[in-house]
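Page 37, continued from 36.
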């Protein structure tokens, strides 16, 4: 299974994973699954950390690599998919994760109720 982590799912995992559901933890630990972290997530973390709205590791990319997560760039096809999304969520970072999930055929690991309104596959974070 190919899983894209929402920002909170990534941060919760990096903080020990205790806040994640049991199935989310098992999904991340399962070596048969590919776990992805979007560049949009890194961007969101850096922006929100800079304005004091978020606590996150300074060495985010190193942590992503250490946990053997795949880094997902934002591609032109991901951006173009945004125009096909209904306006169910105003957060641009979350909308990009939805677009990437749709284009790449991922399951998105999230607890965000607004994201769940989109017709995508997800795993409860």
């Amino acid at each position: 299974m190919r899983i894209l982590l929402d920002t909170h799912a990534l941060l919760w995992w990096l903080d020990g994973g205790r806040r994640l559901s049991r199935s989310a933890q098992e999904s991340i630990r399962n070596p048969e699954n590919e776990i992805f972290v979007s560049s949009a997530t890194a961007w969101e973390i850096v922006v929100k950390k800079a304005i004091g709205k978020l606590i996150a590791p300074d060495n985010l990319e190193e942590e992503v690599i250490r946990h053997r997560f795949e880094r997902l760039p934002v591609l032109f096809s991901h951006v173009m998919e945004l125009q096909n999304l209904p306006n169910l969520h105003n957060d641009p970072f979350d909308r990009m994760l939805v677009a990437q999930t749709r284009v790449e055929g991922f399951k998105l690991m999230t607890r965000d109720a607004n994201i769940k309104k989109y017709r995508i596959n997800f795993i409860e974070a």
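The chain is about 45% helix and 15% strand. Flag for discussion at group meeting. The chain has a mean pLDDT of 96.
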